[in-house]
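queue> pop job 88
queue> type: inverse folding (structure -> sequence)
queue> payload:
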């Protein structure tokens, strides 16, 4: 197997390649730094072959040279392989000038509220001092919706934009079991 294919998965539809070990999009312009920083355990010869393959993929029009050519998935698209899927995305549904919902996604209440405030001038009329447990934060279902499955191509710049995907399987029971670990057990006696 070519050293490139051991680590990277080209995704022509989105004009990127994914590093399946770092869960990050890479481009021909960034792959040299990427392999030398994150995959320096590979023999120099393999790293050179990886860089050459990336340049070749760009020449053949399979991946873009840098982040400017990136295509983001649409909400109906399946989850991108090699990247984590988060089930806790919060999506802005404020209509834009064209009438379509904004679609901006954040993963925290604070984040989506800040977006709605900064981008749309929204004010949280339900805020009454500190939020209390069990009460949904102001704006939910109103200017944003919860439980959107989302992914991101990386952790920096344009790549960190969250996008909505349709997960392959609706079942998240195993994940829920590991995530929801209560630190306190109820004392009934
Ligand atoms: Zn990597
Ligand atoms: Zn918005």
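queue> result:
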């Amino acid at each position: 197997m070519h050293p490139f294919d051991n680590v990277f998965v080209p995704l022509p539809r989105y004009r990127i390649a994914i590093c399946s070990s770092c869960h990050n999009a890479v481009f021909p312009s960034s792959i040299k730094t990427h392999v030398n920083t994150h995959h320096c355990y590979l023999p120099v010869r393999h790293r050179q072959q990886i860089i050459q393959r990336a340049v070749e993929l760009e020449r053949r029009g399979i991946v873009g040279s840098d982040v400017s050519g990136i295509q983001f998935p649409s909400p109906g698209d399946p989850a991108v392989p090699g990247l984590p899927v988060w089930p806790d995305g919060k999506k802005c549904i404020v209509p834009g000038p064209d009438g379509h919902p904004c679609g901006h996604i954040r993963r925290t209440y604070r984040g989506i509220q800040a977006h709605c405030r900064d981008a749309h001038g929204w004010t949280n009329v339900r805020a009454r001092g500190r939020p209390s447990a069990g009460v949904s934060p102001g704006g939910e279902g109103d200017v944003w919706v919860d439980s959107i499955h989302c992914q991101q191509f990386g952790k920096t710049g344009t790549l960190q934009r969250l996008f909505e995907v349709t997960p392959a399987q609706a079942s998240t029971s195993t994940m829920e079991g590991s995530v929801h670990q209560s630190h306190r057990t109820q004392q009934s006696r």
